[in-house]
UniProtKB/TrEMBL annotation:
It comes from the Eukaryota. It holds the Pfam family 2OG-FeII_Oxy. Residues 148-241 form the Fe2OG dioxygenase domain. It comes from Oleoguttula mirabilis. InterPro entries: IPNS-like_FE2OG_OXY, IPNS-like_sf, Oxoglu/Fe-dep_dioxygenase_dom. Belongs to the iron/ascorbate-dependent oxidoreductase family. Residues 280-306 are annotated as: Disordered. This is Fe2OG dioxygenase domain-containing protein. One of its GO terms (molecular function) is oxidoreductase activity. Keywords: Iron, Metal-binding, Oxidoreductase.
Amino acid sequence: MTSNGVDTVPPSGPPPLLTAEQIRHLAFQGWLAIDLPHQLGNALSTLSRSADSFFEQDHAVKRKLYPPSRGTECGFYQVPGEKEYLTLRHGIAGELEEQARQVWHEAALLLHRILCDLTRAGGYNIYAWSHLLENSLDLPKDDSDGDNITSLLRLFRYYPTAGVAEEHVDIGLLTLCIGSAKGLQVRDRSKDKPEWIDAQGPIVLVGDMARTLMRNQVRAGLHRVVGNPQGRSSIVFALRPYLKHPTNLSAFGGEGLIDTKECFDKIRGRKFNINATKNVRERQQKASKKLTHSDSGPREAVVGHG
Ligand SMILES: O=C(O)CCC(=O)C(=O)O
Ligand SMILES: [Fe+2]
């Protein structure tokens, strides 16, 4: 306290969440099964009921309500024979948005705490993330800052048996995946020979941007979705970087100032879009042998294929 009574102690930031063992697991595997806080669990149950009603509607209605934009990055999108999904990146109107807003807020709180756990464990400042999370911890009201805000909430319907996602790592900071049934698999690296195992309950995945910023002190979580005879629903919240401000790598133990957007564009440009239609995925794969798998691809390559 100063003499005029004003508290000069900086706010303490999100409180620690994970145990040391959980942090080690997340850093080594790139994924972690996690118990959800009650409020988030409740918000997810409500949203998944509304998602059921949304997906029951005709495709034309769904597309009209949520016209696809930004390639596969916003709105309703169908991959014929495999899956359909609704990506929310902003919005105020409607029941679905209100429920999405609650899930977004609670999920972002959770993932922010986990990001801070990672930097704390590495001996870095928890505020290293602040500029990367600006305007991203709540569902944006509109798309006016949409070139900088890259986080998203996605509701998936995988069709019985054929609904899949090829193996990939996500491009952002951290992703939370909650599925209604088996299908999501993660790469278990604890054995001599890595193997695919079924995700048990909600999973947090490290994305390629977090891995890059943390200079490979955490691994990005390799995962895939395999077909399930009953089909599968999932809700995915991807906390991705806010692109407007440069990032000082010294906050993560590195050196120099980088253009956050350039860095993220490089990451997303290297990958092909696992949620695009089959022919687009194949074309993107062929276009460069160097492409690795991602949950988002070069924007131009997917425009016009929805
Ligand atoms: O549906 C899921 O649980 C995961 C989907 C996924 O990995 C993705 O879209 O990046
Ligand atoms: Fe993914």
